[in-house]
Specification:
The protein is of the alpha/beta class. The chain contains 18 helices and 26 strands. 33% of the residues lie in helices and 22% in strands.
Length: 622
């Protein structure tokens, strides 16, 4: 999708005659059926007039222009792409990121600066980093830029047409030296240098032919990208498959190979610790290594962002979210590997969704449309929030309605909790999630280290001791305490309070943080997350050697009835506490997930003593 496509001479004329913004507005309305915001129109007027002046002065009259070009399978739009040929006749394109900024401030982020945006100061990507990611995305995922001997050579730069040139400015600081060399930044005082940069790559003109090649080619990740991601995954020892995982892997692989030519759905069911995510990541690597375009898709920002960090920015394009396919074409991706599919929602739209990105389809229909084969990893009892509806029956019905063939497999062997199926079964039974044969937990016979502590200080000390001995560990809690924004200095307030025990939650997403405090999405893996308490939304999907759980009063056992009771007044989760009919099931699932995060041990403090006594009544002590 693009809002404007044509020749550079026509673009210059439209800009000089004050027609360019009108044409973009009309194209925007035709595409999205509503008008763009006045701020966006003003941006087009100011930035594009400045750009047209540069093209005119550089005498780039025989070139192609794309404006507001949407990246494939992405909501981001390029401001401008100029096409042409260099003096050697090689096809070239230059992405130009346009900014109206006139100043910025330093940021603690590696690739960020702070500027005034949307009514407040925000951390945003440095323009050269932003346009560099766009370049990398297209080079790896658009066939015009990597396929054949005559692929288009892609360049990138940013033009800040209101920004004065000051060499000591933070925007030119040393930490940006590499990205500025790769993707130069030009200020209002650098117009001659920008003209030279463009002319050196586009001097011969003939840009319409290059533009046509780009518009007629398609989205598909390059083999180099797919091999890059596959090799990183296959080189990680933590992603090695064992026993039943190998069997299911081979069966799913064989199944998908037989059905690559037709739509199909694969359902893989399994409880906590059965290795669903490890299996999903290995399937992604195998598909990519074989040149099959596969995406790893989840509803968890924390888990997805952690994987993106491990894989690196180049491979991050293969890791997406359930709501990434609102604009996807039919069968855009060979295989969608949907981990934690129980987190699928009714719609991808939210109050933050821009109007032009809104979809009329349900989220499951978007996924089934985008993927030729959809592989869903699912645990019905890990639904922890209202609106998460991706249960097995729901997914099967959605596939059947479209006459899509369904294949089902199940993982049963426990790879977490020291391989103890009994511990997860005991938790299921004790919380009355489902009846099992494991009514009692025998502390004498089981290798898994489950302990109840008298106070949270002792619990935390035990976790820290394990960390000092080389194990991984985190403190987690039920969502029973307010979750505040960071303080003015970026530090975290101590929200989790149990008498004298006071600790911060992990950071909220998208907030400015003090140096050394990890973002919410990296809390589970960053060593600096150890001093914080993780909530369900940052802990789900991760595993640690030892997990500490603060079991709050939102779920208590009443010995007089006897039964479990949910107490929404003790919950600080604004979404779950309103789900009156679902509340107790959602909170049970929350504690089930938290208690099963440990590979070797789980340590618990119960705020409610009746609940503690009930758990102890189900244990055979050493």
């Amino acid at each position: 999708m693009r809002l404007y496509s044509g020749t550079s001479i026509q673009f210059i004329q439209d800009s000089v005659r004050n027609q360019i913004a009108n044409k973009l507005q009309n194209a925007f309305f035709e595409q999205f059926h509503y008008k763009p915001s006045p701020a966006e129109v003003r941006s087009w007027n100011h930035s594009l007039l400045s750009l047209s002046s540069v093209l005119n002065e550089a005498q780039l009259f025989d070139h192609g222009i794309l404006l507001e070009y949407q990246l494939p399978l992405n909501s981001k739009r390029l401001d401008c792409l100029v096409t042409g040929r260099d003096l050697d006749g090689r096809d070239n394109a230059v992405i130009i990121e346009l900014k109206q900024w006139d100043k910025c401030e330093d940021s603690d982020g590696e690739n960020e600066v702070v500027t005034w945006l949307g009514g407040s100061k925000r951390d945003v990507l440095h323009p050269s980093a932003q346009v560099g990611y766009y370049k990398l995305y297209l080079q790896d995922s658009h066939t015009a830029f990597y396929e054949g001997d005559h692929s288009v050579r892609l360049n990138a730069c940013s033009y800040l047409h209101n920004y004065p040139r000051e060499n000591q400015d933070v925007i030119f600081s040393n930490k940006f030296k590499k990205i500025l060399l790769e993707n130069p930044l030009f200020t209002k005082d650098d117009v001659p240098a920008l003209e030279t940069f463009l002319a050196s790559r586009l001097q011969k003109g003939e840009g319409l032919e290059v533009l046509t090649k780009i518009e007629q080619n398609r989205y598909r990740p390059s083999k180099q990208l797919m091999n890059h991601v596959a090799q990183i995954i296959q080189g990680k020892h933590e992603y090695v498959l064992l026993d039943e995982q190998v069997v299911v892997f081979d069966r799913v692989w064989a199944c998908t190979q037989k059905n690559l030519s037709q739509k199909s759905v694969v359902l893989i069911k399994g409880g906590p610790g059965t290795g669903k995510s490890v299996l999903a990541i290995n399937l992604l690597a195998r598909f990519l290594a074989d040149g099959i375009n596969a995406h790893y898709v989840t509803g968890s920002k924390a888990f997805t962002e952690t994987l993106r960090k491990i894989i690196g920015p180049r491979g991050a394009v293969q890791f997406k979210y359930f709501n990434s396919y609102t604009q996807a074409e039919q069968n855009a991706v060979d295989v969608l590997i949907c981990d934690e599919a129980h987190r699928i929602r009714d719609t991808s739209n939210s109050r933050f969704t821009r109007k032009e990105a809104r979809s009329t389809l349900t989220q499951i229909d978007e996924l089934l449309k985008a993927g030729k084969i959809c592989v869903f990893f699912i645990d019905d009892d890990q639904v922890v929030r209202p609106g998460e509806i991706g249960k097995v029956d729901y997914l099967k019905n959605a596939a059947l309605q479209k006459a899509i063939s369904i294949h089902e497999y199940e993982l049963e062997t426990q790879f977490r909790c020291s391989g103890s199926d009994g511990f997860v079964n005991w938790i299921n039974n004790t919380l009355e999630v489902r009846p099992t044969a494991n009514v009692l937990w025998n502390c004498e016979k089981e290798e898994f280290d489950f302990k109840i502590f008298e106070n949270p200080f002792l619990l935390e000390a035990a976790i820290l001791e394990k960390i000092q001995q080389g194990s991984s560990g985190r403190m987690t809690a039920g969502f029973c305490w307010k979750w505040s924004d960071p303080q003015s200095d970026g530090t975290l307030p101590a929200n989790v309070i149990l008498g004298d025990y006071k600790r911060p939650w992990n950071a909220k997403p998208n907030k400015k943080l003090a140096v050394g405090i990890p973002t919410a999405s990296l809390w589970a893996t960053d060593p600096n997350g150890q001093g914080q308490v993780g909530c369900i939304y940052t802990a789900q999907g991760f595993e640690f050697d030892y997990v500490g759980v603060l079991f709050g009063k939102d779920l208590v056992y009443n010995p007089d009835k006897p039964s479990w009771e949910g107490h929404p007044d003790q919950s600080a989760d604004p979404y779950v506490k309103k789900a009156k009919n679902q509340f107790i099931d959602l909170v049970k699932n929350t504690y089930r997930v938290l208690l099963s995060r440990g590979l070797k041990g789980c340590y618990v403090y119960f705020q409610d003593k009746n609940t503690e006594r009930f758990f102890k009544s189900r244990m055979i002590a050493k």
